[in-house]
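As a warm-up, study this chain.
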Amino acid sequence: MVLQAETCDDGMPSFFDPRTVAALFDGNPAAVAVLDHELRYTYVNPALERLNGLPARSHIGRTFSQVLPGLHGQATALREVLTDGMPREVTISGRTWAPTEEEQQLWRASYHRLDAEGEGCGLMAIVVEITDIARQREELERARGHVALLSTAAVRIGTTLDMDTTCRELADFVVPDFADVAVVDVFPADVGHTVRRPEPGVVRLRRAALRGDGDLNEQVQRFGHPGEYIDFAADAAVTRCLTQNEPVIDDWDDRAGERSAHTADRIAASRALGLRQALVVPLTARSRPLGTLSLVRAEGSPAFGDQDVAVARELAVRAGVDIDHARRYDHEHSIARELQRSLLSEPWGPRPHVEIATRYLPADEDVLVGGDWFDVVPLQDGRHLKAMGDVMGHGVEAAVAMSQYRSLLRLLAQEDLPPHEILEQLDTMVERSGLDRAATCLLAVVDRFGGVCEVASAGHLPPVFIDPGAAGARVVPVPVGPPLGTGFGGYRTASVPCGPGTVLFMYTDGLVERRGEDIDVSVQRLASLTMPPGGRLEDLLDQVLDRFGEDAEDDIAVLASRIREGPPVVRPTPAE
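Now compare it with the structure written out below.
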């Protein structure tokens, strides 16, 4: 077994911090030592002090051979382990500095290399006396199991930025090797739907994960499925753990008459399943409480000891960091999602002369919200300015920038300028405002009297025109200027024929862009779109997303519009 770990500044694994090591091994009856790559002692537990007959200060900084010159032959075995990484168990005979009447003593030693980033950075030696080998072997295996548990936690917990997934990974990790049942409860998120207030003295947490070993997994679901809110009375172990910010061992055979009815009922139900003892440790990060990890053992399992508490606390510290990262990500994601949802609501203003259908499809719930947006702004003479844009980047900053672009566009649209002049002024305003998020944008105005559509593009993909009953759509390559926010300008308006019933289709690059494919090839697939006379725009968007949205790697925004059908209209003339 090679123990893997992150490294500290001194090159030793991070979980061999003196405090962590002391908590894990100071009370272990097996003699434990940690040596660096030069075979110098960096830690010895009290059992090794007694075995060697020397205090810890006489070990630290000295080599194995300097401390025990009579056993210098063991240094060869230690160097071999450090070189090839293969653990070794050896029998040692000889004498230490400890007083004894025996002329010769026997020990069984187990040597393991400590690895960081694939290279040996030290050794762990675990030594037991042959005279007490049976009991010591059990302690040795438990100590070895605890170290292995901690060394693999980093790769098994926190594999995603989803908080509930991280909590499930934590519960799955400790069952059954460390507990028969594991429960992870967290405080409700501060973004999203509100949670009713608990009664005074009651702590309300959301159950994020619940896992039992074997048949217990189904039986313990009665205590609250993941996603439910659980109330804990003031005398519950979870409440005491959060109040004290310390691990709490709750032996359900003790203090039976002192429990509140609420807590006593839960304990009675747990005991009916053969559960006997719980260890509750706080989950914290950045000095803030996140929730608790509850570890439960059943009849036949050993009671929780000091080593178990130290290991559980170390696991909780590591998991707390991962949960905090996931919670902060979810917090930002929720804000961005709510902001974007509000900005992508029903397009602005009355639309008596135009039909509009829009959709927004996020690429993945786990991906930060992007800056895709669209808008429809009413103009004079019953015309409408249609806009489709895509702000660079993801997250709250992109959503806020999207809001600023949209507000500026609505302001400029009231001046009734041609599309290219709107883009010119918008580009200047954004560049002067200091907004550091560039954006692509496509503007289109359909003249319902002249049968043309005026289009201007700032780095955006071309529009698609779908004539009713035609065998295919028209992908129109309009002049493309630089993205907005660069300050370069240089936009042009193109006039595209747009007869009665023709559908103008606008979209963001998430609809067509595919890894390893030229964008021009991707866009040309839209030429296969068709629209029957009188067909519904909503049906068209369903067709588009079904055909092109399934493999999308980015957010998708789409907009379809057409002039409402009716009797011929005549352009109004100005009053004399």
